Fold this protein.
Amino acid sequence: ILIEGYDEDNPYVAKVTRLYGDGESYSHKLGAVVQWFMRVSELPVNKLKLLGREPHPQEIFYYECRNCDNEVNVESILRPVKVKHLDSNDPFPDSSDKDTLYVKLSWDSKVFGVVNSTVMESPAEPAPASSPPSCLKPSLPISPSCTPANVEAESLHSATKLSASKCLSAKRRNATARTPGVRKRLELSSECSHKDFKMQPLCRTREQQGFLYISNTKSHHHFLTVSLLFLQISPGTPKTPRHATPSIPIRSLQTQQPANILEEARARLHVSSVPESLPCREQEFQDIYSFVESKIIDNTGGCMYISGVPGTGKTATVHEVIRCLQHAADMDEIPSFHFIEINGMKMTDPHQAYVQILQKLTGQKATPDHAAVLLEKRFSNLAPRKETIVMLVDELDLLWTRKQNVMYNLFDWPTRRHARLVVLTIANTMDLPERIMINRVASRLGLTRMSFQPYSFKQLQEIIMSRLNKLKAFEEDALQLVSRKVAALSGDARRCLDICRRATEICEHSAADPSSTGLVGMSHVMEALNEMFSSAYITAIRCASTQEQLFLRAAIAEFRRLGLEEATFQQVFVQHQALCRIEGLRPIGVSEGLAVCQRLGACRLLLLEPSHLGVLQHIRLNVSQDDIFYALKAD
């Protein structure tokens, strides 16, 4: 049978194994116990590679899971569907028959397996032997007005306005508001085992969309067949063909292996290189691991807010936690989970977060508004075979909107009862919730927060040594120098790695020098530091006027106050006037401030909107904050 799900175009597929009733009163419901099957679209996208081939469009998988909910309301059943079992070596038939689904393999949330034909052909569970001598006790009264002709006419009228799935959704929401009765199985007596019988159409309301038939045949077992007969439903919108987006061609030649020690050191020090261990963040790692692990084991949701200046290991620590949790899930130490990641830096609009989350969960593409509706339905409703979802939201401060609806939903979904969603958010601002979030958003964060402090020079030195992993490429004094320089400025580990990589290049180019030892020394590190902090931008900052330097400082202060990477001239100008008073300088007027801003824009130190916007034009930095601090600190 097909069962209504959050996606109307791809309803759930299941096999009925048993029916039961919730009582005899008019308000109680019928239920069914089912065996679930999974569509290709329901499988995690990163697990499809385990199949080893392209899945068939009409292929489904026998789902083996101990934790999934296998009870459904019969009102959520859409219609019967034909399912055919194929051996693993049998080819798939022509896909022109859209009404037939095919089963070859099973899925247990980790690996694919072979489906036994006896499992597919096993009948429904028989009724208990101690059933009383009555043929059938329906749990709903039979309405005399619900004849097949009446229902067919009403179905025609309803189908022109709403799809069957939407009607069932509205009805089930109304039904769940009633008080449930005591669950009781439908009883089939032994007297009726040699008679064919049918239960008349059961109609609760005039909008009922179909019939429920329960039939029994002459056999050794009681076969229960549930079907809802629906009239024609208008087809959905045409889908975009697969592989419509062009892709980058695959590299024809493999990357070359490092030819010497310096090349090997340069590869290990790259920021994208995954180290064997993550030093200096052991306590933060343990806290995040314990938080996520407890949520996965308890099948609950939660949210953690992680903050810290750039380059302090926030994202790397979370990735290490996820790798360890996935290994534990593969070893059956914890239940399996689905991990997805989004980054605010990679989105042109904050609402694109909905699109990316939906696509990574289901592979489905939709507009931002439609994706938000589907995600709201997915995280609000109880659904079968739902795995815990662990979602990492990096660069959270870039998802800020005027109504703050994107941030609110990201923090609100984990609080839903049936969501089973764990959200880990990362931002550079420690007090982002208090600064830019309204109370309804900040309240969703709770007290689960973590702050990453900047690295000290000893920690930076340990990070570089662990990356090199006993590879002798640097002199000890050279490592101390670069670690102390970066720690005194920002404590950014990524900046430290970049300087070390540039030092290896300088050392390699100076290898012809007879006095060279082949190791990166103090002179190489000093040259790399001078290059890194002696660019044309830094020279321009040092040569700027006092008011222009104060304006740059005011821009950084306002960005940090907002937790964003841009602000209006009016907001920065308020900070500039405050800095003038602190420095004992006469505050300048608005026209002078606009002239200062335009000069900085002409030097490309700032990125400005068109000047006709006046005080409302937006301002962004075109240089890193570290470069500004370095240039002003040197003065």
